[in-house]
Specification:
36% of the residues lie in helices and 14% in strands. By secondary structure, the chain is of the alpha+beta class.
Length: 161
């Protein structure tokens, strides 16, 4: 932190955001950086709509003070696709299976599933359910969401040599 600002890497780029240090990361992402894909749902870390990756781990951005993100890598839903805009396996599977209804929970679900797939394993249905446990779908579309994550595992396996 310098001069009341905090430096972090967001979606592969250096970002400098204003303090105070206890300010939630979510507000810096949405207000200062214009990255509105991470949603403000409950503000208490219960709904998962604000899920981002912090050094590869899924976290609730509404609960992370920006000081904890200083010098670290943050990936939002806007940073999940490839640099050329190619959808990730999780994004592709969600689109192919229509694993969204109103779409409010979708960014957080995709980011949480991306963290799970980043572990490099082929997760079971129970492991997928556990990884998405803190992400609430208001419309109740969990069946397609779970199917989409399973499909993403298949897509990822096909893409690997």
């Amino acid at each position: 932190m310098r001069d009341g600002t905090i430096e972090l890497r967001v979606n592969g780029r250096l970002a400098v955001v204003p303090g105070p240090p206890e300010r939630p990361l979510l507000f810096a992402l949405r207000t200062d950086l214009g990255l509105t894909g991470s949603k403000y749902g409950c503000g208490e870390g219960e709904c998962g709509a604000c899920t981002v990756l912090l050094d590869g781990a899924a976290v609730r951005a509404c609960q992370i003070p920006i000081s904890e993100a200083a010098g670290r890598d943050v990936v939002t839903i806007e940073g999940i696709a490839g640099p050329d805009g190619t959808l990730s396996p999780v994004q592709r599977a969600f689109a192919d299976l229509g694993a969204f209804q109103c779409g409010f929970c979708t960014p957080g679900m995709i980011v949480a599933a991306t963290a799970l797939l980043g572990l490099g394993t082929a997760p079971s249905r129970a492991e997928i359910e556990s990884a998405l446990e803190g992400n609430v779908c208001r419309c109740g579309g969990y069946v397609r969401i779970l199917q989409a994550v399973e499909r993403a595992v298949e897509l990822r396996a096909k893409a690997q040599p």
